[in-house]
Amino acid sequence: MKSRVLHIVKANNQNILKGFVLLLFLVFIDASLLIFSIDIQRWIIDDIFVGGDKSLIVPYMLILGFSLVTPPLIFFLTSRLAYKIALDIQRVLTSELLSYIQKLPVLRFQEKRIGKWTHYFTSDINHIKDFYTFNIPELFKQTAIVILLCLYFGWIDKWMFFAILFISIGYVILMSFFGKMAKNAQSDVQKQKADLSVHLEEAISSTREVISFNRLDWEKKRLNSLYENLVRYVLRDNKIKMYSNIITHPLKWGPILLVLLWGGNKVLKSEMTLGTWITLYQFTAILANGIQGMFDMLLEMKKASVYTNRLNEVFKEESINEGNMELNEIKSLSMKNISFSYEGSNSRSQFINNLFINFSIGKKIAITGSSGSGKSTVAKLLSLYCIPHRGEILLNEIPITNYSTCELFSRVSICSQDPYIFPDTIRNNILFGREATEEQLDKVCNLVYLKELIEDLPEGFDTILGERGYSLSGGQRQRLAIARSLLHDSDILILDEATSALDLELERKIQRNLDILRKGKTTIVIAHRLSTIVNSDIIFVMKEGGILEKGSHKELLEKKGEYYHLLQSQEYLQA
């Protein structure tokens, strides 16, 4: 099953590949000992019970004991090794998938619901690691048994070998018939499971809305409908498996009846020893089970390809091209001839058209405009949340994608209107994995007027916040996110409507503190509320995806253009 998934496993951990080879070797030894432990019975029957040679009892019993005691030890080793490989595969795939998702443009990532992304981790990866650590070794074992026994039967009688080969070909034909059906059925089952997972995740998240709008019965009907669809496809999958078992089961008895009748006749004619016949009869049952086992594992391989294909589709998504250049000092930042539009939108307000902006380093730069003018899209483009369709974003006159993302985002950070708050302590939400002293924490919290609120809480900085910070108000979440950004202390800070949930007085105070703290550093403020940006060094006014005006607050007022009218409208509404 050649795929990106297999390439990732090989490339990331050679120990997995070595362990897998060792696992297959142990499985082969186990299969060989199974055959040997049965064949030793032929020696015992023919040489001791029939031949009467009692001197062979001790050596034969020792050999038989060894062949019976060793398999449990091998089973212990293979099980332990398989679990280790399974966990390694799960770790590698989970890490690689998460890293790849983090490199996707945010808008591309947001096209799928969170539940679907979660399903890749909780279902697809689990099935893939089970496939590599259980299905493949089991298929290898059954194949080894079938091949060894076919050689054994060919050694005893060539016609019996051809008869078994004919039955095996019948299994191959049936496999090709049922395999495609099983793969398609499993694909449908996984789609329904993913849809159900998405719905359950959203149902839990929307509990308050469902209750407040009295839509409990409606939600229950939606859930029942998804379960009914899942049951229908699962039953279809099981029906294919049942039909395959009904058709292939009689084939298992073909070799057994052949050996029973043909071998028994040979014994009566003294053309075959009793021990050989008994051994062949046991081997035939094992052979039949081996062929059936191969058939079942090949069906599982077809199903497993569904999970692999689903992950391969994710890895085919267009990711952000990450460079490897180091970023020592930021001297310039500009957007040259940028054009961008959101997929599936025909609205002109969703477009960025031939945009040119030169950002003055070390200054406070503001971008404003009416709703839908494209100002927040500029923030997304600068943060690589989305990729422009045309044009370049240049950092030090070099395309921004030429730099390592680690280098880039150690110097550039964004604070958005709706920040993500982890269900963790206030301290950990601000630190975000960084190290900081209590004095540094107190400083950034004082700057955004959070210190008093934190001190009033019983656990202070160690107070655990709810899921997504729902225990905080919108303004409190925004202030916490700003404190997190200030602690990062990046060279370029992008504030995308980061204070929109605050009242005017508190917003002015925080903006004043930000101006003092970040003096000499580049701060890009995206704001609809003009009171936020009046003291900016330069203001860009956007309209319909382009720059309409630029200048200081005073210069733009004197022009009495778009900025002047926006300001008048807001002052009128506030009055």
Which key phrases capture this entry?
2 domains, Rossmann fold, alpha/beta, 10 strands, ABC transporter transmembrane region fold, 575 residues, four-stranded antiparallel beta sheet, 65% helix, six-stranded mixed beta sheet, 18 helices
Give the low-confidence spans.
Answer: none
* CA gyration radius, whole angstroms: 35 Å
Query: What's the helical proportion of residues?
Result: 55-70%
Strand order in space, largest sheet? 6-7-8-3-9-10
Name the CATH architecture of the largest domain. Up-down Bundle
Which class do the helix and strand fractions yield? Answer: alpha/beta
Mean pLDDT: 81
Distance between the termini: 69 Å
What is the fourth-level CATH superfamily of the largest domain?
A: ABC transporter type 1, transmembrane domain
Please outline the major beta sheet: 6 strands, mixed
What's the structural domain tally? 2
CATH-defined topology of the largest domain: ABC transporter transmembrane region fold
Name the helix and strand elements from N-terminus to C-terminus, one letter apiece.
HHHHHHHHHEEEHEEHEHHHHEHEEEHH
The tally of beta strands, per DSSP, is 10
Portion in strands = 5-15%
Specify the CATH class of the largest domain.
Mainly Alpha
Shape from CA axes? elongated
Treating each run of at least 4 consecutive H or I residues as one helix, how many helices? 18
